[in-house]
Design a protein that fits this description.
The protein has 680 residues and is mainly β. The chain is 0% helix and 46% strand.
């Protein structure tokens, strides 16, 4: 026979546990003053099966799980047969909902909710009997009572209750959190949101939402907490606007409460206006005696004024000494005639006193109206593969403030819609090449010496050039080498000697139906052919053992280039093979599985898979040493619709293979989908 098992009673007295875990004083067998903090049960011992008369003892019990065997409970005067024990408590069930009652006893047990019997196993039995009952408990506070009797023989009893958290069963939303407050700190520009703890036993956590006044709450929460009843928001814009907060509770079945009443805060405006645009577009030829500045108007609703600053050095310091004026828009004023270069910037200021950064800089020269004596003598022009080249003889004299020659090109010369553009600037030598003027047109070129103030000297004679344009492709690139690497293929080649060289293109060829099909390697930023300016390139492709052929072609300024079919050099290479030797992945019910070179994996759930049945995802990484896929991460399902994970142990300069599987609520795992990551 088993020895008696006593959980809360020892000898003739009871040690009573409070809900917070502290010890209460020992209770005498006749004590009726014992109180037990909810949801701890008050347990009462009777020396009969009718629960009448003066109890033999009272204490607190947090778990109903006793086995007294054939002995008597621990209070003095309790018999080993024909005794009763009653557990009772009153607790707040929050929003209520579906619960599971599990009871087992030898002999009888009855369970009551608000005095209504829910479990009835009231019989003298030789063996332990058990029952599981589903009970729906209304919201609010309810009493729970468990009666146990032992008539003869061994005695044991166990009872537990728990919410049912399956989404298909539990459709009851949690109660709206109460006691919500928001407190804004203008010092830290943060908002603390606090609320009272919900009473639901199946509570999973809380979600905090924020919205700008006049807009709706977003679908995604600002923050999610599981146990905390407060959240400090440090991300609210510092723009002086009103932002509202609400809190929603959610349970383990995925049910979410309605939001708490909106509570708003007005943030401190520490956001400066944007710098005014267009100031840098102001300029004046020669040596003006006054200037006028224009700029685009700012769009901030709290804009108060503009401030104009001036200095003889850059960047212009925004100091009171440099401040010229406040303006509602635009500025006109005298330019000091000191011979210095003057720089102007404008800032925008809002009603809170926040001042923007400086605008672009407008630059004005003062009091120097004489151009340099430098002159481009004997100017001539010729066209070659490099473009239109202008040459001239050195000037007989030079000015101390000579800044260099500028070359101007005029399209449609002699017409009313002619356009003059500066194609060369700051040239200190006696030649300049305009690399790619549009072909098929006549242009007029002039070379003009400029000083540091922008004053021009005597222009050269106009040079008329009818541009034919270059139609000859650069010669085939030599010395092309391709070396397979663990993270792709490294290419190198000799520099092209073509005078009009603009860049190189790398073409990657794949053998298709007995023919090499080429396509340019694309730049990841814009997915356009990658214009390589050096003589080396690394193609980041998976090391999957594929045989490929590379061709490097030189492209001139007019876009002329060879192709593999017209003489461009091509080299064959077989990529390293780092593919997994494990059987091919049959494909998981995931969609859009992708990865970048930083090891960030992203995916979505396929429409064929029920979101409610998925608990997460398993991510495996191929281990080339053990020749097996190792589990490296388990990603929970969370509340999103897309998922991602970055591998913190991503090996550099390699090709890494991953497989992603779906973990289901029933404990099964789906097939896997595979993706390769090429790292730098």
């Amino acid at each position: 026979m088993n020895r008696p098992r006593v959980t809360t009673v020892a000898t003739a007295a009871a040690v009573v546990l409070a809900a917070a875990g502290s010890l209460l004083a020992t209770a005498s067998p006749s004590s009726a003053a014992v109180t037990c903090a909810s949801p701890v049960f008050k347990r009462t011992f009777y020396a009969n099966t009718t629960f009448t008369g003066t109890p033999k003892g009272t204490d607190c019990d947090s778990v109903i799980d006793q086995n007294w065997g054939t002995g008597a409970p621990g209070y003095k005067g309790m018999p080993s047969n024909d005794f009763g024990v009653r557990w009772a408590t009153t607790r707040d069930f929050g929003s209520g909902g579906p619960f599971t009652f599990t009871a087992s006893s030898r002999d009888g047990i009855r369970v009551y909710v608000d005095g209504v019997r829910k479990v009835d196993l009231w019989k003298n039995v030789a063996d332990t009997v058990s029952r599981t009952t589903y009970v729906t408990i209304p919201s609010g506070t309810h009493s729970l009572r468990i009666d146990f009797v032992n008539w003869t023989g061994a005695a044991n009893v166990r009872f537990a209750y728990a919410p049912r958290t399956t989404a298909t069963v539990d459709k009851v939303k949690p109660l709206v959190p109460t006691g919500t407050t928001v407190t804004y700190s203008p010092v830290t520009t943060s908002t603390k949101v606090s609320w009272a703890k919900n009473k639901e036993m199946d509570l999973a956590g809380y979600r905090v939402y924020r919205r700008l006044k006049g807009s709706a709450y977003p679908s995604a929460p600002l923050a999610t907490t599981t146990t905390s009843t407060s959240y400090t928001d440090t991300t609210a814009p510092k723009d002086g606007n009103v932002y509202y907060y609400e809190v929603r509770a959610y349970d383990k079945a995925g049910n979410a409460s309605s939001g708490t009443a909106d509570l708003g805060v007005t943030t401190t405006d520490r956001t400066a206006p944007a710098p005014p645009k267009g100031v840098e577009d102001n300029w004046a030829m020669g040596s003006p005696t006054k200037i006028t500045l224009y700029w685009d108007g700012n769009g901030e609703p709290d804009l108060a004024e503009y401030r104009v600053y001036r200095s003889t050095s850059t960047p212009v310091a925004l100091t009171p000494a440099n401040r010229l004026a406040s303006s509602g828009g635009g500025y006109t004023g005298p330019l000091p005639q000191t011979g210095d270069v003057y720089y102007y910037v404008v800032t925008a200021v809002d009603t809170s006193g926040n001042e923007s950064a400086a605008s672009g800089t407008a630059m004005y020269y003062s009091d120097d109206l004489t151009g340099p004596v430098d002159t481009a003598l004997g100017a001539r022009a010729s066209e070659s593969e490099a473009g239109v080249t202008l040459t001239w003889d050195a000037s007989a004299g030079t000015s101390p403030d000579f800044a260099g020659y500028s070359v101007f090109r005029t399209s449609r010369p002699g017409t009313s819609n002619s356009q003059r553009s500066e194609v060369g600037k700051g040239i200190k030598g006696t030649s300049f090449t305009d690399p790619a003027p549009p072909a098929g047109a006549t242009y007029s070129y002039q070379v003009v010496a400029l000083d540091h103030e922008g004053n021009g000297g005597t222009p050269s004679v106009p040079l008329s050039v009818t541009v034919v344009g270059n139609t000859t492709a650069p010669a085939s690139v030599t010395g092309v080498k391709a070396v397979p690497k663990a993270n792709g293929v490294s290419l190198s080649w000799d520099a092209s000697g073509d005078p009009g060289l603009a860049h190189y293109l790398v073409l990657r060829g794949v053998l298709t139906d007995g023919q090499w099909m080429y396509s340019p390697v694309l730049h990841p930023a814009d997915f356009r052919p990658w214009k390589v300016e050096g003589t080396a390139f690394h193609d980041h492709v998976p090391a999957d053992g594929q045989q490929v052929r590379y061709s490097v072609v030189a492209v001139d300024q007019y876009g002329n280039q060879l192709t593999p079919a017209t003489g461009a050099t091509a080299v064959d290479v077989t990529e390293l093979d780092l593919r997994p030797t494990a059987p091919a992945a049959p494909g998981a019910p995931v969609a859009y599985l992708g990865a970048d070179q930083n090891g960030w994996l992203s995916w979505a759930l396929a429409g064929t898979e029920s979101l409610s049945e998925v608990t997460g995802f398993a991510i495996h990484r191929w281990n080339p040493v053990t020749q097996a896929f190792d589990l490296v991460h388990t990603e929970p399902i969370g509340a999103g619709t897309t998922w991602g994970w970055k591998d913190p142990a991503l090996p550099p300069a390699s090709t890494v293979y991953y497989r992603v599987s779906v973990l289901r609520e029933d404990g099964t795992t789906s097939d896997a989908s595979e993706v390769a990551v090429v790292t730098r």
